[in-house]
Amino acid sequence: MFQGLLRAAEECVGASLTAGVGAERPCVVAIDAAHAWIVAAHVQQTSRSALVVAPTIGRARSLVEQLRLVLEADWRVELFAERDALPYERVPTDSLTRAARLRALGVMVLGQRGVIVTTGRALLDRLASLQEARHLVAEVAVGSRIEPALLAKRLMSAGYRPGALVEAPGELSVRGDVLDVYPAVDARPVRIEFFGDEVESIRAFEPVTQRSGSPLGNRIISPASEVFLTEERSARIVGRLAIEHLREAEIAIWSSDLQSIAAGSLPEIPEMYGGTLGSESIIDYATDTYDVIAIDPKGLRATAEAIEQQALDIFDLDLRNNRIPRGLDSPIHPWSRAADVMTRSHGFDLQWRDDDDRSRSGDAETRERPAPFSLPPSFGGRLRTFIDDVAGASAAGDATVILSQQASRLSELFAERNLIVPIVREIHEPPPGGSILMVQGSGLEGVVFPCLAHALRIVTDQEITGWTRPRRPVRTRRTAREDFLSELETGRPVVHVEHGIGIYRGLVQREIDGVVREYLAIDYAETDKLFVPVEQADRVGKYVGVGEAAPTLHRLGSTEWARTRGRVRAEVRKLAEDLLALYAAREVRAGHAFAPDTVWQQEMEAAFPYVETPDQLTALADVKADMESSRPMDRLLCGDVGYGKTEVAIRAAFKAVMDGRQVAVLVPTTVLAQQHYRTFTERMQAYPVRIEMLSRFRSPQEQSRIVDDLAVGKIDICIGTHRLIQKDVAFKDLGLLIIDEEQRFGVGHKERLKSLRAELDVLTLTATPIPRTLHMSLAGVRDLSTMDTAPEDRLPVRTYVEPWDEGRVREAILREIDRGGQIFFVHNRVQTIHQAARRLTALVPTATFLIGHGQLPEQELERVMLEFAAGNADILVCTTIIESGLDIPNANTIIVDEADNFGLAQLYQLRGRVGRGASRAYAYFLYRRNVVLSEVAEKRLKAIFEANELGAGFGIAMRDLEIRGAGNLLGAEQSGHASAVGLNLYTELLAEAVSELLGRPIARIPDVSIDLPCEASIPATYVADEPTRIELYRRLAAARDAETLGALAGELRDRFGPVPAPVLSLLWLVQIRVGAMRAGIAQIQTTANEFVIRMRGEQPDRLKQAEREFAPFVRGGRTYLYLDRQRLGIRWREMLDRVVAHLDLALVPVGA
């Protein structure tokens, strides 16, 4: 993309930069912004791979991003990231970090051309030897011979983890003649299909759909683990570790590990045993083809030695507290070893300043090489000054390349100065003197190359407007929300459409008349049991209620379930009528139709420093369509904590301002008002938009001035608490009201909001996770947008629920401070909050603290929050004042004291305060030791622990009425109805009612009872994983046409190999069921001599016509049709196909 700039950098760096060894290693002195250019120029000139050691993980990530933009595509640039855990800490490495590390190691193991960036801390991690890793590389080619089981065994010995599905790097699945594997260095998993022991095909497949694509060539598969277990190492670990002295809970954990190791399996956290399993580090993987480039070697040494000391301190403390076995080797190498290997490696050092040690060494002249790069000026949003500066540089003969997300708008400003600045996609040649080029984008840092015939300046949004966050092009992943609704769990309640609520007991096999079939077993009240044929699995759904009470089980054959369902159906229809009346009234009201997007709107949106998720874009399109319509908008935007709702609101607000209208943003707390004010201001600072905040953080005089300015239209956007909707506040031309978490406002405020809704466009934001089924059922009566896609670099928060442990708290705080982060410590009693802070000070004397709670004076609370947001303290000791919407990306650990006193909704909201950046976040919910938890508290803590995935708020919302889920969307009364029949069935009934009222009734086709003598199932030998089998059964049962069935058959063949006879029979049975439902058949059963088809009601003409068509094999009556088993013999399936198809066609009206 920037090859022309890279050539300019090569000229600046010059051929004089020749890497050396030992005393000959040069030290290049250059500003930070030039480091990526120096590394890129060097590898481009020498065609040698490089291992770059950066001082911090943030710097390492920035270098990776820049190098990927600057270097040509055939260079692999990977990050060997730091692990989350402190030395000796039992915290598994998260999947994304693990995958990134394995990709980096894979590039080195396979000898691919690349630049690997790491840190001094990661340099200490113990790894298997390069020789051992290379020995475990597997090569697979079409036509090669190896048994699937043997290949799987080889891959497992290389660290690949077997499972039912392959969705992430390092996973493996074997299903008969099909082997799925996600190679550590590949972008997508591969499916290897065998014919016997011969590899027949290799295809990539999509992890989400599990469907494969086009064929691939040979695959070289690098290992998927950093360490490997051998018999000798296993015996050494088991023989050396002494665990008898540990506490009871610790003995159980370490004993489980040792059992796994003795059995030849790596434990869950193999890093704990790196001292025995790992003999090398990543620097040993930098072979003769690599240059090692160390950035700030002195700083690297200081950091690494601090980690060494930290490891010794933690080991000593854990040993004294009986938390760690005796005989456990250190999981990290000493820095002296890494430094020795680095000194002997080919390469050079990069320094951002003169190093005192080198200056005193006497060989400074031979080792120090200044690199002539400098920084461009910063303009802080003063765009006219920026334009003037670039124009002046151009007149002086200097070239300027502008990399900005606001390229079009800047181009307009240049045009006003009669300067035509082209916006280009790529720069292939060094820009000539006096030229100005613009690139739409971000990712580089501003720098000046003054060493050419003319100066070349690269200027970015950082210098122009002060944006600091890099735009990270990331893939997105959808959280498994609807899985929560569809997954059937053994021992949990389920709902059968016809029979009501029971307890699911799993899949069972039963033999009836010599035929073995599989059924879903359900227990009902009074020892009743129901066995549901798998082809009717769609009649059974997971029970999801609202609240903590267990549902009442129904009795089979009673009228109780029918009465309950009828009552809920009537109530749901009433709700639908009310919603429809509100919707219709709004449809006829005239509102303001906002103009289409302006160029400035496009510019401002392009400046968003992240890639939008698909849900964000859909929601934004919905909002803009509403705003551009002449009817008033009243849209509810639902999304889990941190999924990007605020950005949608910012863009809507900007759109309103661009059309000359004012915007009010209403929030429930002063802290959230302050944060939104900061976010809105930051996003719009390059534009002439005046933003103010109205809350108790403002003095009475300031509030008075803001109210006056609102009335005369001097303020474009005003963000505030309920103060904003008091009667003395009047807007000159209010066009858009944005409400954040409306359910947190009082009744009086809600009435005021209700009156405002009649007059203007309203956008309501809520962290309510709404199930997609409920969303769809409300289509046409409620404008609702859902956002349930998490950014790929957002990691689930690692959650711990445990008794108070000072060592654990100290460990958590030190880990966060160690990686440059901050900590929330929530203590929800103002009277003892200072005492809690003193307790923490004793634990971690080096940490800095702030204290924040709602009883502080306004100015003091504002100061505390701003200080913490600015990073001026390590720990904020606070009450639940941080609960709503607070966004401090650098705070990634939260410790909640006495968590058993909080509601589930509060716990979930508090956990949402961390994990909003790309770093792994931690949440500790602690309760007092020796205190017996109440049943309710235990349930809540268990729920927050289990809901540990992204978007887990949806699952919590369905379990507890306190959280804002369906309860707030539907109201408390309707939540009771949803609990009576389960949310799944409730949403079906609601969808029916809405469709009927809109004149689009849903055709409900009654099910068919089928009993035929064929083994129709998905054998465990074909699909071993039971949840996967149930999912497939449900999808097959829900199929209603030949296309869907054909697609499912193709998917089965693709994912699991050739389809066995029982599955073919199941596909046929489903096909018969679909045709029979359409044909009006109620039942197909088998007797000793006949197959009996019973119709829904008397249909003598159709049945007589069928008898004439298929005589002598078929005879008909008024309701029944009989097929002669004896005459048909083995052709009975073919005849049944033809009869059902005939009856189906007989339903089509003449002339249709």
Textual characterization of the structure:
- The protein is an alpha/beta fold.
- The protein folds into 7 domains: 3-131 and 269-370, Rossmann fold (3-Layer(aba) Sandwich), CATH 3.40.50; 138-221, Penicillin-binding protein 1b domain (Penicillin-binding protein 1b fold, 2-Layer Sandwich); 383-464, 3-Layer(aba) Sandwich (Rossmann fold); 481-565, Thrombin, subunit H, CATH 2.40.10; 594-790, P-loop containing nucleotide triphosphate hydrolases (Rossmann fold), CATH 3.40.50.300; 798-949, 3-Layer(aba) Sandwich (Rossmann fold); 1009-1146, Transcription-repair-coupling factor, D7 domain (Aspartate Aminotransferase, domain 1, Alpha-Beta Complex), CATH 3.90.1150.50.
- Strands 3-4-2-13-14-1-15 form a 7-stranded parallel beta sheet, sandwiched between helices.
- Helix 19 runs antiparallel to helix 34, helix 19 crosses helix 35 (983-997) and helix 39 (1100-1110) crosses helix 41.
- The longest helix has 29 residues, at 560-588.
- It is globular and about 100 Å long.
SSE topology:
Layout: H1 3-13, E1 27-29, H2 35-46, E2 49-54, H3 57-70, E3 76-79, H4 95-109, E4 114-119, H5 130-135, E5 138-140, H6 148-157, E6 161-162, E7 171-175, E8 178-181, E9 190-195, E10 198-205, E11 212-215, E12 219-221, H7 231-240, H8 248-262, H9 274-277, H10 282-285, E13 290-295, H11 297-320, H12 335-344, E14 347-351, H13 356-360, H14 364-367, E15 368-370, H15 383-395, E16 399-404, H16 407-416, E17 423-424, E18 436-440, E19 447-449, E20 456-460, H17 461-464, E21 476-478, H18 481-486, E22 493-496, E23 500-512, E24 515-523, E25 529-533, E26 540-542, H19 560-588, H20 599-606, H21 614-628, E27 634-639, H22 645-658, E28 662-666, H23 670-684, E29 691-694, H24 700-711, E30 717-720, E31 734-740, H25 747-757, E32 761-766, H26 772-777, E33 784-787, E34 789-791, E35 798-803, H27 806-818, E36 822-826, H28 833-843, E37 849-852, H29 858-869, E38 875-878, E39 891-896, H30 904-911, E40 922-927, H31 935-946, H32 953-959, H33 965-970, H34 972-981, H35 983-997, E41 1009-1010, H36 1026-1038, H37 1042-1056, H38 1061-1079, E42 1081-1086, ...
Parallel strand pairs: 1-14, 1-15, 2-4, 2-13, 3-4, 6-7, 13-14, 16-18, 16-20, 17-18, 27-32, 27-33, 28-30, 28-31, 29-30, 31-32, 35-40, 36-38, 36-39, 37-38, 39-40, 41-42
Antiparallel strand pairs: 5-12, 7-8, 8-9, 9-10, 10-11, 19-20, 21-34, 22-23, 22-26, 23-24, 24-25, 42-43, 43-45, 44-45
Helix pairs in contact: 1-2, 2-3, 19-34, 19-35, 20-22, 21-22, 34-35, 38-41, 39-41
